[in-house]
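Input sequence (186 aa), recorded before submission:
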Amino acid sequence: LQEKGLSPGEISVGNSVYSLGVGGAVASMGRAFAGGEITQITSMISDGRHQAISRMEEEARRHGAVGVTGVDTKLGRLAGYTEFFSQGTGVYSERPEFGGRFFSSAASGIELYNHLDAGYWPVRFVMGNIAYAIGVGRGILGTMRTLARGEVREFSSMYNEIRHTALQRLRMEAAQQKPLTPLCPT
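Predicted structure, token format:
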């Protein structure tokens, strides 16, 4: 990355701990029984991940970074709560063309170099989320199909639906990011 005017620096982290609460737990149990998206959990995951990423980015900015690369986010359990954890490596630059263009990306240092070399500039780490339950009826029918050989259509269609929904949300979130003028640091 030094060839592109960047140098690695501090590891930056951000986390957020969420509770679904009694009302959210009861509502999500009902939805899990019926099947379909569990909006309470989808919202919690989206909000928690965004909080953790924002805090990671804020930490990197406090250390003087112009961006964060190698961003990894994890979801885990912590004493009955859901913890969202984001981590990445801050990158620094003295070059004026990097000023005011803070970015975050899942790209490794090598991948970031290749993106910059090809004329691309990362903007912001984005994601698409969905929490989904198969439901009792679909689950029973799908389980019965596993007794025979062949595709379990109930499960295939569910996974296809949730992947497309998550990808659509990822695209929408990416489209909401402010476009930057092209930059091709040398």
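Checked by second reader. The helical segments are 21-34, 39-62, 109-117, 136-145, 153-175.
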